[in-house]
Amino acid sequence: MIQDAWLIPAFPLAAFFVNVLLGRRWLKHWTGPIAALAVGASAVVAIGIFLEVRAGAERTIVPLYEFMTVGDFSVNVAALIDPLSTAMLLVVTVVSFLIHVYAIGYMAHDHGFWRFFSWFPLFVFAMLILVMADNYLVMFVGWEGVGLCSYLLIGFWFERPEPAGAAKKAFVMNRIGDWGFTIGMITTFLVFGSMNFLDVFDRVAKDPPAQGVLSLIGLAFFLGATGKSAQLPLYSWLPDAMEGPTPVSALIHAATMVTAGVYLIARSTPIYEAAGPVLAGVGGVGALTAIFAATIALVQFDIKRVMAYSTVSQLGYMFLALGVGAPIAAMFHLITHAFFKALLFLGSGSVIHGIGDVQDMRRMGGLRSKMPLTYWTMVIAGGALAALPPLAGFWSKDEILGSAFTNGYPVLWVVGVFTGGLTAFYVTRAIWLTFHGQPRDRHLFEHAHESPRVMTVPLLVLAAGSVLVGFIGFPPDHGFLHAFLGPVVEAGAAKGLRPIDTGTNWPQFLIFAAISTGVGIGGILLGLSMYARGRPDPAAVSRAAGPYYDVLTNKYYVDEMYDRRFVEVAKAVAGAAWAFDIHIIDGLVNRLGWAVKLGGSGLRRAQTGIVGNYALSVVAGLLLIMAVYGGYATGWLRR
Amino acid sequence: MAASLMDHLLTLLVVIPVAGLIPLVVFFRDARAVKQVAIVTTFIELVVSLVMLAQFHVGEAGFQLTESAAWLPSFGIRYELGVDGISVLLIPMTTLLTFISVLYSSGGAIKERIGEFMAAFLLLEVGMVGVFMALDLFLFYVFFELMLVPMYLIIGIWGGPRRVYATLKFVLFTLAGSLLMLVGIIAVYLQSGEAGDRTLSLPELLTRSDRFPPDFQFWVFLAFGLAFAIKMPMFPFHTWLPDAHVEAPTAGSIVLAGVLLKAGGYGFLRFAVPLFPIGTQAWLPILILLSVVAILYGAVVSVVQKDLKKLVAYSSVAHMGFVTLGIFVLNQQGGVGAVLQMLNHGFVTGALFLFVGIQYEKTHRRQIADLGGLANQWPLYTAFFGVFTLASLGLPGLNGFVGEFLVLLGTFKFNPVGGPGGLFWGPLAALGVILAAVYLLWMFQRVMFGTLREAYRALPDLSPLEVACAVPLLVLTVLLGVFPQPAIAIIAPSVQRALAIATHASAVVLK
């Protein structure tokens, strides 16, 4: 089965070709089931491979073809099937399949249905290339490929200016990160003579280069990761990306693509472990992003924006985990987050779909009775996000915070616990504003309806996942996931650098769990106290919070700052460059041409027409040649 | 007969377009016949160039399919043709782009003087394929100049409103450059041996590199270099390009960007670097600087362009910056990347000019601000134009990425004796990739997205002829992006050989 790994991306690629070529004229609504079936087939193969890897096939390279070989540089298109990539393959294919099914319902009335189900499997294909690659270059191909599909799908409703602008913003911000990826990838080749993960990590273990070089590589890749995974300072494209259809937000901007940066750094663990202080920087940026985005999420009224900032924040937790040297915890949270955040988005989508494309929570309220299935699945997902035991998010987030503390980062731990309280608050607020209280828009409420089964069944499956997936990490620090991923990401342990635990430290675990759960419940209670009593009054909240509230609703004015500092400056520079081109360079050329014309017009009387002009030039040239050669021969031109 | 034809494939490539001129002149006043003659001629030329490619032995570094005959024996000038990995792919690229240009122009884009137009194109093709095959410096010069005249006519007669200014600028610039090159060629001739033993044959000259002392190389490299730098065009000799493109008819733009610019990069790699390695070294810091400036400057200026064609023209300046950068970092990855970039730029920018032209034929607008919302009206057009835009911004998986990536890799490896090295230039050049996304996606957004104007509502999507023109370019764009290795295998040995000759020659001279 492992040797058939290339089937996994082949199915969605085939679906893309079929749908994009035949979708518009002929297949029309068949494109949805075709795409979903293809991704489902990928999931089946991925499960088969997972079983084989679990049975002991630890590390297999499946080559496909020679990509490029120039001199000492050589890269193949080849897959690295190991526990890390297998875990990602499973998450990507299974969650993608569920969201594809959901989207068949969600997109049913859109005139671009075939187009949606062309880009959607293409995205899955690119994501799978990213995950399976055995070297940085092929990973980069997938990395940019998912960026392209993200661009196409954010801008899916391109007639309106906002999606088109958001799509471009996402791509350009990602390109800034990709600049870092490019530098990291090429420097890796210069240092190690290879871009293959296994060659590079082998060299790092046996014969590590100077720490400064590794730090440079690490920083460069991290810049790439901040772009793709929406971390400070390159995060601001992700909230805007909500202009895309909701299944896109769920799949690309919550469950899969945005976690690629986490995967990149988890994959490069050997480099980061040897690089020293860079890793602490990764953790710091992650923690800062987590709390920064969570505070913005507190005051948003667009339900999808709340979820978007929440995603930025949760990705911050994953980088925090990577930074404190707990890549397994990062991957664990990546997996649980994929389920509960996809569910939160799909639930939001179900609401949006059910009330006729409204996203403003101020116009919702009381929808619990109209959409019970959506409500209950959202509650489960919200609980998982708030890290309530025993839901999935609890286990993974607790492990991150525990690792932060025990690995010697108490400040990051405090930030993480506090952000947990904020998280619990905003998710409570979002669910309450949407489903509880009195309906605030009678008309919308009366027309509200539960979504069709093609949408609710994926919700139920994801809800089950949001409950159960956490147990792959049970018992804490010694669950299945730890045993599965341990050999890949914990190179240090193999070398005996890291003490090998003898078992779960239950008292310690319980203390940490109690603290973070306590803070989480505090956040929930605060949310309830503010929003559950009667009608929430944004104006009152705004008055009470004063200027802080304005700063938060304006998202710390970062977009404005970026516009002023970068976009405007860049436009001014470009304008100046063009003026320079026209007036200075071309001005000089024109003046020169004018002078030539003046000189030529005198001589031209002896000549006629173009041919003569041409001949004249030849004569002039010959004179020049003789002069130059004479000058050279007499030594006048010798330096 | 067949066997002997196969021995003269390169001559055949020179002769076919000339032969096509005969029936063309016979049916000169019959527009339909003229078009058919031109299409058939360029198609045969394309097929023969593919046969030539099939005859090429992949993996051999030296010149193949060579032909040599005395031409002007009293001056040691020979009719000498040959191809190697550097040129063998550029020739089918040329014949394909010419065929597409002729095909597209026969669809109604050229309304008057069609006979003259097609004749100019056939003549142009002779010059273009000749440039990539000539192994004698004088012969190269003849072909180099032969490209100039028909292009001058194509822009000057079938061009836009400011065509006179544009052609004058184009001709004066290029002529100034090529005259300098002629100076250089004569200098090389005089220096190449004692009277009676002088030669301009490249293979012969490469064995006589000990006859070119360092200060000679310094000046002659400058003479050749200026000609090629103007043709590329390198910053700051680029201002003829936007004007020429804006005024040129679509077919003229396709071959101008697709083929003519490559004569500069090709000339550097074929003649200037291997013949004058010490001259190259002397000018290297400036050449690297100008290349990186071109990449960034071309991109920055593209951002604020209001005219679609001008935008694509300025983006060519940036893309050609990658070509010169790849050549002058003087390593294998850079050189192979440069050749691939020339090839890919030919297909992609040729296609972009084709699509800008198609769009203009329908809307009669080229100002970006006048367009918008075309995506829903023209799904087919959008798909093609989108792929070429993405290839132009270097999206991995499409061909543009491969060349740029290898050039960047070579740039990072660049390790000069003095001055800033690869770790300075590499990240700087890589910034150009970000900027490419900015100006191309912003352009695409303004042209294709948004709401459609009422005036464009009835305009039809691509015609079958237009699709036929675009499909081969699309296929190559994808194939060369996903499977670049077959092309690399052809190019790499010859690039390595050229660089090895340069290294050897500079060692010989310096000793």
Quick gist of this model?
Chain A has 639 residues and is mainly alpha-helical. Chain A contains 27 helices and two strands.
* Head-to-tail CA distance between termini of chain B: 50 Å
Supply the number of helical segments of chain A.
27
**Order of strands across the main sheet of chain B:** 1-2
- Kindly name the structural category of chain B: mainly alpha
Overall pLDDT of chain A: 87
Rg on CA atoms of chain A, Å: 29 Å
How large is the radius of gyration of chain B? Answer: 22 Å
Oligomer: heterodimer
Please give the count of helices of chain B.
20
Distinctive features:
heterodimer; A: 639 residues; mainly alpha; 74% helix; B: 511 residues; 75% helix
Characterise the protein shown here.
Chain A contains 27 helices and two strands. The radius of gyration of chain A is 29 Å and the shape is globular. In chain A, a hairpin with a 2-residue loop joins β1 and β2 (73-81). With 639 residues, chain A is mainly alpha-helical. The termini of chain A are far apart. Chain B is mainly α and 511 residues long. In chain B, a hairpin with a 4-residue loop joins β1 (64-72) and β2. In chain B, α3 (31-55) packs antiparallel against α4, α7 (163-191) crosses α10 (240-247) and α17 runs antiparallel to α18. The longest helix of chain B has 32 residues, at 332-363. At the A-B interface, β1, α5, α6, α26 and α27 of A face α7, α9, α12, α14 and α16 of B.
Secondary structure: elements and pairs:
The complex is a heterodimer of chains A (639) and B (511).
Chain A: H1 7-27, H2 31-54, E1 60-70, E2 73-81, H3 83-106, H4 113-132, H5 136-154, H6 161-192, H7 197-206, H8 211-228, H9 237-240, H10 246-255, H11 260-267, H12 269-275, H13 278-297, H14 303-323, H15 327-354, H16 372-385, H17 392-406, H18 410-435, H19 442-447, H20 453-468, H21 480-489, H22 491-494, H23 506-531, H24 538-545, H25 547-553, H26 558-604, H27 609-633
Antiparallel strand pairs in A: 1-2
Helix pairs in contact in A: 1-2, 1-4, 2-3, 2-4, 3-4, 3-10, 3-15, 3-20, 4-5, 5-6, 5-10, 6-8, 8-11, 8-12, 10-15, 11-15, 13-14, 13-18, 14-15, 14-17, 14-18, 15-16, 15-17, 15-20, 16-18, 16-20, 17-18, 17-23, 18-23, 24-25
Chain B: H1 2-7, H2 9-26, H3 31-55, E1 64-72, E2 77-83, H4 90-109, H5 114-133, H6 137-158, H7 163-191, H8 202-206, H9 214-231, H10 240-247, H11 250-275, H12 277-303, H13 308-328, H14 332-363, H15 374-377, H16 379-392, H17 399-413, H18 422-448, H19 464-482, H20 485-510
